[in-house]
Amino acid sequence: MASPASPASSTSSVDSRRSLDGNRPQTLEDLVNHFVASKRSLNTQTILWRANEIVTSARELLEENAVLAAKNASIRNMVDEQVDALEAVRRGIDVIEADVQSEFKQLLHDLDTSFAGLQSTLAVLRETPIEAVLQPEGTPQKHLLDFIDSSTVTNLKDSLRACIDRYKDTHSILEDSDDAFDTALDNLHSSIQNVPQTPVTSSSPSPLPSLYHHLEAHAKEAAHAFQSLVSHYDLCVTALRHTEGGAAAATQATGDAPMPSNAEHAVPAEPIPEEERLEMVTVLVNDAQEVDHVVSEIRDRGSDMSFLLSQVDNHITQLRNEDSALNSVLKMIARVTAEVKSHIATSRAFHAHWLEDTRPTLIRGIEEWENQREFYERFDLAYAELLVEISSRRRRHDKAKRKAEEAQKELDRLHAEDERAREHFALAQGDFLPLDIWPGLRDPPRQYAVRPIPQAHEGGDEEEVREEEEDAVARSIPQLGRNVVERALTRVKRRM
């Protein structure tokens, strides 16, 4: 749209009196119509006011964008660090629990192995009968297991079961704590994932500076376009004021007198040459054809600015939502961090209980099972050796008895021989020797007997005592079957 100072056309004055629309001269009515249209176009000033408000708001939002972007980035880094720390604590608790659980399972395996060995030994004792000849007549059959105190095994078993139950209780408490910790971390991760992610990266920076630049450009172009409308309005006012009856016609058409946009009071127009007035009218007509286009351009730019501002608002809303969500995440982290102390204390209590109670109790239980198994194996071996010893004693007793009987026979033979010799001497020389020559001349020979040395007994005939002793010795060393002794020897040799 040309300005009032635009150079006049070089065409003839006749051509300049004709309009571009129908090649006819511009009448007063045409000028009034152009004036009315130009005045109506100035209503776009409200769009400029709105454009100014938009630019001002966008400038404030641009500042807020910088603050929120920096704040959100800082909080995200802080959140990542805090989450890493919380997960490190959780992994540490898992490591302690895994180590304890691994050793606990190994100790349980060792405990079961030791107990199985003890049970195997007890089964041998349960199945090993006491030989009937070793027991008083009329007593029920006994086995080696009847001679041990089973309460020791039962008490230790109950003690170990109670220890394992205590461990399971503490581990259950730890598992509850771990579940609560995991739930808190899952909720925290879910909250972090649900934080609105403002699409701003190093490769895709914030769109606000570019949007603000476009807003400023639209505002400047709109202002420039409006200025051309103002200039056209002023040209219309000037043309009317230099046309006879123009001011009155304009007043009648619009209800007020035409006045330049930059004038506070109406100033009478100074006469101008007709040629100059016609040139001015030509420019006015040419510019009038662009008024609607300029008005549309201003409206379009206003609409574009409103759209751009909505984009700015959307981006800022995203940043605000992200900021609000991140603040909620920080509060959640604070709660989880406060709860972590309890989770750590539970883990420490579990580990301390393991070191001070469960582990030493299980180790002592394994050692005790092994000691009992070894003792009862020695008991079984001792019984086998007892059977061998009884057989050996019986054999030695029988040998000694045979030797005693042989010695007794030799003593009896010597005694008889001595009697015969003395009788023969008495018959041959007795009549010649006086009795008082040796008091022992007529004494019978001393008789010797081989017999068991009696135990201390009070009263009773010596012969009866001797017979009782003989019977007692025979009873105290029973005669075992050969197969019994052979089995006992086999067990002894197997365990040597």
TrEMBL record:
Main subcellular location of this protein, as a coarse class: cytoplasm
Family assignment from sequence similarity: Belongs to the ATG17 family.
Membrane topology classification: Peripheral membrane protein
Region feature (Disordered): 1-24
Domain of life: Eukaryota
Compositionally biased region (Low complexity): 1-14
GO cellular component: Atg1/ULK1 kinase complex; phagophore assembly site membrane
Location of the Autophagy protein ATG17-like domain: 41-433
Record-level GO BP terms: autophagosome assembly; autophagy of mitochondrion; piecemeal microautophagy of the nucleus
Coiled coil: 390-424
A Pfam family this chain is assigned to: ATG17_like
Role of this protein: Autophagy-specific protein that functions in response to autophagy-inducing signals as a scaffold to recruit other ATG proteins to organize preautophagosomal structure (PAS) formation. Modulates the timing and magnitude of the autophagy response, such as the size of the sequestering vesicles. Plays particularly a role in pexophagy and nucleophagy.
Keywords noted in UniProt: Autophagy, Coiled coil, Cytoplasm, Membrane
Protein name, per record: Autophagy-related protein 17
Lineage of origin: Eukaryota, Fungi, Dikarya, Ascomycota, Pezizomycotina
Gene Ontology molecular-function annotations: molecular adaptor activity; protein kinase activator activity
Annotated compartments: Cytoplasm; Preautophagosomal structure membrane
